[in-house]
Specification:
- The protein is mostly helical and 155 residues long.
- It has one domain (2-10, 28-145): Cytochrome Bc1 Complex, Chain D, domain 2 (Orthogonal Bundle), CATH 1.10.760.10.
- The chain has helices at residues 2-13, 30-36, 84-91, 98-104, 108-116, 131-141; strands spanning 46-47, 54-56.
- The protein has a two-stranded antiparallel sheet.
- A hairpin with a 6-residue loop joins strand 1 (46-47) and strand 2 (54-56).
- Helix 2 packs across helix 6 (131-141), helix 3 packs across helix 5 (108-116) and helix 4 packs across helix 6 (131-141).
- The longest helix has 12 residues, at 2-13.
- The relative contact order is 0.22.
- It binds heme C.
């Protein structure tokens, strides 16, 4: 718990100039995020799990389906084989908030080792994505599923 709080504090103090955040919703620009998503589609798709419809990307299978990623529990796509580091983070309750997502995407291994306090290696390689584009990606992906982000974050 202490580790997570420390990490959140580090993120809060990072010098980032995003558009003012409004409530709990994503603070990035979904259109910029759509452009940035091109860096992800070799490995990820956004597919509606009910209809099977591809909502973004093509047919990437190396990484898990990103449908509903905003507010989703990490490591929760059933048929996907996550790294043991990612599984440990999921057991510890990692959730894809905007902050966690934006810190994870540029360097999954760094983020997950810091979050879990364990050594290990994520199977997602580091991505050349600025933290600002990671925030934009989150706003883009939040358009697909991710109902949790809408209004029930009042706990
Ligand atoms: C080279 C393939 C590859 C690329 C490119 C890639 N990813 Fe991943 N991604 C993965 C893999 C593999 C995992 C599972 C990692 C693990 O198990 O440690 C993953 C996991 C994730 C997760 C966690 C999902 C969950 O269910 O917990 C998110 C979020 C994510 N990627 C976002 C992105 C975004 C955004 C981009 C584009 C900037 C991107 N990825 C680019 C392969 C990739």
């Amino acid at each position: 718990m202490i580790r997570k709080l420390t990490f959140a504090t580090a993120l809060l103090s990072a010098p980032m100039a995003f558009a003012e955040s409004h409530g709990n919703g994503p603070s990035g620009d979904p259109e910029a995020g759509e452009a940035a998503f091109r860096a992800c589609i070799a490995c990820h798709v956004v597919r509606d799990p009910d209809s099977g419809e591809v909502l973004a990307g093509r047919n990437g299978r190396t990484g898990p389906n990103l449908y509903g990623i905003a507010g989703r529990d990490s490591g929760s796509i059933e048929d996907f084989r996550y790294s043991s580091l990612a599984q440990t983070a999921a057991e510890q309750g990692l959730v894809w908030t905007e902050e966690n997502f934006a810190a994870y995407v540029p360097n999954a291994t760094d983020f997950l080792t810091e979050f879990t306090g364990e050594r290990g290696r994520s199977t997602m390689t580091p991505q050349r994505v600025s933290e600002e584009d990671a925030i934009n990606l989150y706003a883009f992906l939040a358009q697909f599923g991710g109902e949790e982000m809408d209004e029930d974050e009042s706990e």
